[in-house]
Write a structure and sequence with these properties.
This protein is an alpha/beta fold. It contains 11 helices and 11 strands. Helix 2 crosses helix 3 and helix 3 crosses helix 7. The longest helix has 16 residues.
Amino acid sequence: MYAPRKPSRSSTLPLRHLNYHVRHWGPEESDLPPLVLVHGWMDVSASYQFTVDALQQERRILAPDWRGFGLTSSAQADHYFFADYLADLDLLLDHYAPGQAIDLVGHSMGGNVAMMYAGVRPERIRKLVNLEGFGLPATRPAQAPTRYAQWIDEIKQLHQGGKDLKTYDSADGVARRLMKTNPRLSEDKAQWLAQHWARPNAQGLWEILGDPAHKITSAQLFRVDEALALYERISAPVLSIEASGDSLGQWWSGKYSLDEYHQRLTHVRTCRTAVVQDAGHMLHHDQPEQVAQLIEQFLNEA
């Protein structure tokens, strides 16, 4: 099993009627800005361990488990509202980095949160690294009736057990699932991640640490005009890191492309892109050394 070179510490913060779990690496105090890492959908803060191990500089690093993921309590609701992630992050920063501009890294859903938050609170972000947080395909207002109906139908399915997450007989089964989803993930890393991505229940079956209510499709359509308005308010330099595997094109099959995403990025005041070779969507698992090097080079630029 993978052995972390920089073991993390944990803290729990009462926040918005939840117990928020936050993972910490490095010293409690540092001359460098705090580095905050936010994970993606159906993932956990421990997902960044391999990248943290590959960072060369000693600095203060924090990574929360989003609401309803990992060791953070669930919202006790049957759906999740995306804006809650922005408020959660803002209150977390008020507690852990009051009055400081931070360096923010977000992967996938966390990358989308990071981009939105940097537009809402531009003064809180010194530099931003977006790991495959592409946003979503453009929508049309005419899709709203069908979307609301889908949202209602999926809530019904949730209450009938139709959205329950699969359980596994052992941690090894969880590791095999991780490797099936990501063929580049080595077995030693998968075995380590499995211990943080799931845990045994009272029956001894391993359950994924994710609230099934996260599977409910958002009732709100994704509006590109709103996303671009947020992008235009970002004052921090942005580095958008992509995997060579073009996961965006694979997900959306012609509905949304990297070219369209790059066009959206032109609305960010200072932004450039980088590509991690031989990597898929979980690029921080596939090539943590490449990702860490890109992050550190960007954060250390004058």
